[in-house]
Amino acid sequence: MIAELTPAAVVLLALLAALYLHDFTRAGVRRGPHLWIEGAVFLVGAVLIVYPEIARRLARLVGIGRGVDFVIYPLVIWLVRESLVHRRRRHEDEARLTELVRALAIARARTVTGTPPESTPPGS
Fold it and tell me: Domain ranges in the chain?
């Protein structure tokens, strides 16, 4: 198998490296394991960019016509999933923010009117 380093491949490899470097510099300690997974995915992507014949052979093996389709189909599915997850999280965040703003408004209104905050009975 011969490496195909076209100008497009070089640009794509540079983009992969830049994305990983960006995530690596922004990641905290909690994201360490995710960086390993992301690195592995990017490495597979880099191999498929440099050796597109691998994608072509895998595509033929599973009954897909072109190697690029073999790569794009799972990516589209993953992007739709990420979009749905992001939308759900945004709605959850909006609901939490609404509750927080309401609680803050009630607390400020009580402070202004001099009403003591509601006390909860012992043992509840």
Answer: 1-50, 67-111
Q: Give the pLDDT confidence of 71-96 residue by residue, as tens digits.
A: 899 889 999 999 999 999 999 999 99
The CA distance from 68 to 83, in Å, is: 22
Mean pLDDT estimate for the chain: 86
pLDDT for residue 77: 93
